[in-house]
Every structure is written in C-alpha cells, then in structure tokens.
C-alpha cells in the first residue's frame, strides 16, 4: 500500500491511501473500453482523469458496472473540444456527456466545496472528494497506473460492508434529501449495513423528502426499478420511512393490507428476475410492478366497453403512482400489459391519414392536375 502526502503549514500530512493492483485486484477487462479511451485521450492532452464513484465500488465487488463515470481536472469546454461526440449539460454545475453509439459516459470536472459552494466552481481532487455522499462512492481509479486513490477509508468500508457518509451528518440530508434514498439503495443493493447513526438519522429526517420535485423522485424510482434489486431496496426504504414520499398510495395500502403488501412485493420480485436476465426490458414493463397489484382494487363493470375500462384504469393508475410522473407512453404500455394479463385486449389506436400540406397550408386540397395522369401525351411541337 502506498500513501499520498501533502504539505500544510510547513508540515507533511497524510492525505490518501493508494491501493495497487495486487491489493485491489480490479481486472482491466471489466472496464468498458470506450471509458478507457476517454481517459487515455484526456491524459494524452495533458489532463488528469479517473474512474470515480459507483464504477469503482462495483469493480471492487467483482461486479460489471452499468455506468462508468469519469472525473477530470479538464474544464467542460476543453473536454468538448477533445470529443466531437459530446455535449455540455447542466445549469448549476456543468457536465459533459460523451456518446459512443447508445452508450453515454458522464465526465465531470473536479468540484470545490469551499465556502459552502455548490455551484459551478472547479477545484482539486482533494476538494472534490469531500463533497461526495458516501465513502463507498468516493474512490478514484487511475486506469494507467492501476491505482485506487482513497481519501476517506472507502476501501475498508467496502470490505466491512458498511455505508458511511463523507459529508457531515449535520448537513448531508439538509443539503440534498435525495441522498437518503441513495444511501438506503446502496446498502440494500450491495447487502451492506448502514452505519447505525446514519440509519437513525434517515428515519428522523425522512420528512425532508416531501418538498423534493416529482422529476427527481421519478428519476430515483426508475433507478431502483432498473437495479434488479427493487424489492429489497423498496423494503429498506419502507423500513426507513422513505417510501411514503415516493409512493404514498402504495405505502398506505401496504400498511392497511398484508395481502396487498405481499402482491406488491411479489410483482417487484418478478421484475427483479426479468431485469437481472435482460438489460433491454422497456420502462413500461418495469412500471407494471408498481400498478399490477393495485388494478384489482379498481372497481369497474364487466362490460363490452374494453376501451372505457382501459381509460378508467389508466386514470386511476396515474393518480395511484403520484408524485411519480413517468412518460405517458410507458404508463399506457404498463396498463395495457396488466389488463391483457387479465383477459382484456385493448384495440390499437386508429391512425389518422396524414393531412396534406400544399403551399405551406395544412388541409388544402391538392390540385387536380397533380393527381391526374394524362391518357395520351400531346404531340411534340416543332
């Protein structure tokens, strides 16, 4: 094991531990080759670049990461100049997305948290690490030297299977309540235990999720459904008093009906089996796990009006999953899937023929001459 030192006030201080290949055992073949290309190009241009966060955690746990996030000292505009297949995103803090076919790699610049800054202020690696949420996500991997750089004891916490915060408990969830969901998700999905004081704090401050925007809650719930561990994560969220802010209607029904609770978790477990065996499952299919057990609670008459039944079920399901707001087409797919399972076949929508556009005017009649084919060509004039 190596150690990184820094000088402060004329004294040499221990800054970070460095784990070598022999100590961490990360296999290069488990790293996406396009992520390696991005890092190599940044290094070749004179910048420093590392894998960071969940990718390093998963590699240490001998898992193939789904995402490979990269951090660098290059600023967004300089990154974009190096990669034509990229775009800058974000308002509060600008990031770069680099595209390789369907794959998207997120590249961020080291951020500073000095003076409480959370905006577009760039910093150094030792500043960047102190604004990451949990120690298991605060590791940097140097792909060239094959070193893990650990400022916060993240490697030891992963070995101990414990979730521990980097940011002070006084402000970690007040700054961003969604961190509570992430902490519980990391613990449940990796079979780690939350630090006792952290678990108590989440239960105490769960109410901070109430004002969080529906778009952020939707994003987090979709990540949970994509994880392949949704049943376990949602159960842990429920135990910590968080799920009532993600799916209040479902949480209320689970509290009042053990039968509903069992069906709900059975649907989630079925989804986990599907997701674990295929990465191509569409979102609409995943959403069925949230509504399937609820549909039987919707009262509707057995009539021949299948379309009417569908519209009623759709409206009720839309209200049931609030504040989550997934794309309409995906929720429509989920409702139709669940109804088809119950013997209702929803007819496809009839497509209207396209309205002709003539001389920039929609709906204008086409001139007859453009539709008529002369029976006999006129004789040529000389």
TrEMBL record:
Residues 349-382 are annotated as: Disordered. Residues 49-164 form the Poly A polymerase head domain. GO terms for biological process: polyadenylation-dependent RNA catabolic process; RNA processing. The keyword Transferase applies. It is an enzyme of class 2 (transferase). Its EC number is 2.7.7.19. Keywords: Nucleotide-binding, Nucleotidyltransferase, RNA-binding, Transferase. InterPro entries: NT_sf, PolA_pol_head_dom, PolA_pol_I, PolyA_RNA-bd, tRNA_ntf/polyA_polymerase_I. It holds the Pfam family PolyA_pol. CDD domains: NT_ClassII-CCAase. Residues 191-252 form the tRNA nucleotidyltransferase/poly(A) polymerase RNA and SrmB- binding domain. GO terms for molecular function: nucleotide binding; poly(A) RNA polymerase activity; RNA binding. Belongs to the tRNA nucleotidyltransferase/poly(A) polymerase family. This is Polynucleotide adenylyltransferase PcnB. It comes from Candidatus Gallitreponema excrementavium. The lineage of its organism: Bacteria, Pseudomonadati, Spirochaetota, Spirochaetia, Spirochaetales.
